[in-house]
Amino acid sequence: MTPEKAKATLAFLSMVSAAACCAMAPFAKFEDGMLSKTRPAGWLLRACRMQADGLAGHPEALSYPYNTCLWAGTIPRMGVHGQDWWRYEQTAYYTDGILRLGYALGDKTLIDRGEAGVDYTFDHPSADGFLGNECLWNMKRFEQKSGKRAGGFDMWPFAVFFRAVKAKYDASPDERILSALTRHFLAHDKKRLSTKRNIINVEGILWTYSHTGDKRLLELAEQAWRMRKPRPKNIEWNELAPANCANDEAICMHGATYCEEMKVPVLLAACTGKKEYLDQAVNVERKLVRDNILPDGCPETTERVRGNSVYWGHETCDVSDYSWSLGYFLEATGDASYADKIERCVYNAAFGAVADDFRSLQYFSNLNQFICTSDSDHNPFKYGLTWMQYRPTHETECCAGQINRIVPNFISRMWLKDAEGRPVAALYGPSKVDFGWAEISEETRYPFDGKITFRFSVKEPRESAFTYRVPGWCKAGASVKVNGESVSPAAPGEFATIARKFSDGDTIELDFPMEVRFEELPCRHLVEFRDADKFGMKRPAEAFADSSQGTVVCRGPLVFAYPIPAERTEDKAVHANMNGKKSANPDFKCWNLRPAGPFNYALAAHAAVVSSDGDAGDGFFKNPAAVKIRVPVRRIKWELVENRFTPDIPEKPVVLPGKEETIELVPYGSAMLRIGVFPDVSKTSP
Ligand SMILES: [Zn+2]
Predict the structure, then answer these.
(1) Stated pTM of the model
(2) Tally of domains within the chain
(3) Which of 401, 404, 497, 641 could tie 93 with a disulfide, CB 3.0–4.6 Å?
(4) How many angstroms separate the CA atoms of 563 and 663, rounded?
(5) How much distance in Å is there from the Cα of 258 to the middle of ligand 1?
């Protein structure tokens, strides 16, 4: 180290220690960081354990690159497959997922495996202070030295890995992490930071700023964001930038990139209080919902966002990325609608993309999927390949890492803190949280039931406040009781705060009546895009004019689906697109699922009978399901395409002769083959 550098290092170290700044982004309404103090309970605990026994705990089943040292060393390259940054992006997702799951469960094996990567990374910075593998420090230098092409995303994998760093810091704060992150980020070139997904490092930069108060970090983040420009002619790598976040035009771009980049302006808003950034953030999320949201709560992303057709699905990465980004929207704004969206996305799309034993997952997951085999992908991208199959290994590996983040990330945001550090029950599910002065048990079968009891265990009575949310779907009105006495509830879609002196044994009971809703979906529309064929996409079907896409049956935050009986056979074939990857654990198989019963049902009336077995059991991973809804249907003409693809929703369903029948729906996340969107003949059928 040169004397100048040593001086500079000392100068910022003293700046870091002098900044006794609060950890919260200064203009945010809520703050996270309670993960290591939160324990899932009930069905959620059993689901977490199933994940730990499944994909999270068995990297050998996920194959490359998960069966390597992860970030605790240099990950070997596998032939020519993938770009250099891939294996660090993918293993960063996985490290974040297993570390957070480890904290939620108190599972030492998972914690040790995740922390090993964080510790190694901070023990091996470059001479300039860059963290992570050499190929991520400086693309140009790496290319010159190795003679290999690094790709233009060299800074991006650390943006993912930062989330594992944050998880570890939240569990055990260590000043050395803050100083090393400050040095790492300040070594970034703002122009490179402003390009492509490199900008997502703003997440780590502003988190570090919130903890240190070092204004150089805030300046770096603001400058990089202001330098960005949209690239609408490049549909593969169009980018979110101040201009297209602020205007009303539909955006066509890579879905995961959209879901990741949309958080940048909201993070800037939380750190600066500037309306300009908040307007950009709220608007760009609104546009994603307007143009692309699917009824299971995740945007259409296969892999580019290009419309709202329920015939197409989403990449599993986007369930993770969208719900994680929404968490920052929730924290920055305190707007309860973002919490509703997180619940809808995770409680439907996430569980709908993973098998009922958490041992295999889909890359593309669809509302309607009547067949999931090695050649049944009907989405425009990778048409006819393995991407809709439930399997532990996938051609592109990102989703297999990301699936492990979703539930632990959800648990990370179930309990937030308000500006005074007081409890906010933000996302609902069975859990227990420790706020130091109070332990709060959340006893509930939610989302299978709308009754929730919070039980306070308090050492010394204390004046405090408890914030809860009334979900936007609860139009029937919530009931709220404090120690059995009714209090007036908040309106649907609002947070409310109960301020009082809390004593041991206090209870707060919430009751959100769950009525069955028949949601008619809006017309199909498409975002124009160019060069479709260049990316192996089939051109989209013609838009339906002035007709709804079908009807979805909902109750509370859950979508209900018809579980099509499936013939399930192991797929032992070695597919060429798998680049030699296969599960090294015989208990983790690839499946071919073919329909073993009728699926040609249309809703005959908007009438429903709800039944519940009274026990949420293993939640989504349970047969019989925790809640069932019976609906009347008629059979229509609706068949597989080429005997291997799920058909599109018929625009004008043709009802077959025969009587009305009743079928039983289960939570969407419990059905592997399913009808999630029904053709609706309730108004046309005799
Ligand atoms: Zn993915």
Answers:
(1) 0.94
(2) 2
(3) 401
(4) 10
(5) 13
